[in-house]
Amino acid sequence: MQTELKRVPIETIPCDAAILVAFEDQKDRLPAIVQELYESKEFSGKPLELALVHRPAGFAAKRLLLVGGGKPDKFSTADLRKAAGGAVRHLKSKSIKEVAVLLNGGVATPEGVAAAVEGAILGNFDPDAHKSEKNGNKSVDRITVAVPGGGDALEAGLRRGQILAECQNFARELINEPSNRLTPTVLAGRARQMASEQGLGCEILDQDRMQQLGMGALLGVAQGSAEPPALIVLRYRPESPAPGGAHLGLVGKGVTFDSGGLSIKPADGMEKMKYDMAGGAAVLGAMRAIAQLQPAIPVTALIPTVENMTGSRAQRPGDIVTSLSGKTIEVLNTDAEGRLILADALTYAQRLGCTHLVDAATLTGAIVVALGHINVGVFSSDDELRLKVMTAAAAEGEKMWHMPLDDDYKDYLKSAFADLPNIGGRWGGAVTAAMFLKEFAGKTPWVHLDIAGTAWLDEAKPHMAKGPSGVCVRTMVRLALGW
Ligand code: BES
Ligand code: ZN
Ligand code: ZN
Predict the structure, then answer these.
(1) Which domains does the chain have, with CATH numbers?
(2) Rounded distance from Cα 105 to ligand 2 centre (Å)
(3) Which of 3, 69, 89, 354 has its CA 20 to 30 A from that of 296?
(4) Nearest ligand to the C-alpha of residue 363?
(5) Which of 364, 432, 454 to mutate to test the pocket of ligand 1 (most atoms within 8 A of CB)?
(6) pLDDT digits 0-9 by tens, 183-234
């Protein structure tokens, strides 16, 4: 989607549809035509409510679309992002191509411009890459953001919003790929291609290299599949790094299909396990944006990628593997594979010099039980880094909830035969998974984001298509930019 900022009244912009956000109980200071809609009760301004008017008097646009903003005093940039997304999704379904949106009052800021553009680009996405008729080619081609005035920072907001949303859509495309078309090898190839286009360093560790290094936890998961595993490493290095010596490591779970292995999953819903690489895709999306937005902190991305299958070489429940850290792990359940591959990636991240670690993973069904599909579960051993991540998430409108990780939970992770089991008991499954990872993060400040409930939308929302959400891309980029 093309984007443009214009400092002119929206009434003067010729386009297919002009979009205005209008609020509850707000009748004055609006064009007469809008006041009529309120008076006839066709529109009340409730969040994401829509009303379309043709040939609006006084507008150069062919149509006027009102989108509800709810209560004006509660309206945030997150609401603006959703409103822009809801408007674009409605208009594109009507084959409308060129739109303009007015930002005034409190949202004519760089943050507001970024949010509006993000909402529009995210709303324009459809997971239809494998349909012969791609949604009848319905998508909005161009959005003009009309603002009353303001400095150059608004243009920077426009650029940032466009980059963030395009990179989030890049992650969504990867997540949506079915597992026959996106194997670990294919994912590594896509990462390498993206890195070369964006000027990032890239190294792919293959099975032999991982064997030499001793990544027994990761390799154990991979051995049930005919598809070889890979560890994708991408490097962003700033021209002049900020003082302090921090080095951010972003780690993403890249299981291209999770059958559960021999501890096999039920058939019902197994098709969704193509999204078990959503954490890895989010890290790739974030790195693509980081390459363009150039934060002052060095960032290294690590994406362990495997397919969890049941082949005759598959690891068995009861197998004991030795991780890169030297710790031995008793694999009591082969379906708890994400933590095994992340364990080796977290250890390797520290060997590469990362001083702060953030991982994103579709790690547990238990986080979906705890938080539903609304909040990402946040686990951490370091309050300072956790607050940085959660502040970035709040600013990006990505909901996150702090979960416990105190040492009392250690009792839940006891193995009779190895240093650690890969599962705990019946209760607190998302916490025991995080406790397991904590053993491998060691003393390095680390935050774990469990996105099993939030990386995939089972139903379309007014502002987002059904399917991959691309959650965490924006949070990780803002974390790096704001370091
Ligand atoms: N990939 C799954 C977690 C998951 C569940 C993601 C639902 C998305 C939606 C993970 O590898 C897994 O299978 N975890 C097990 C752990 C259990 C065996 C301790 C789970 O959550 O059931
Ligand atoms: Zn699993
Ligand atoms: Zn999994």
Answers:
(1) 2-145 (3.40.220.10), 169-481 (3.40.630.10)
(2) 48
(3) 3
(4) 1
(5) 364
(6) 999 999 999 999 999 999 999 999 999 999 999 999 999 999 999 999 999 9
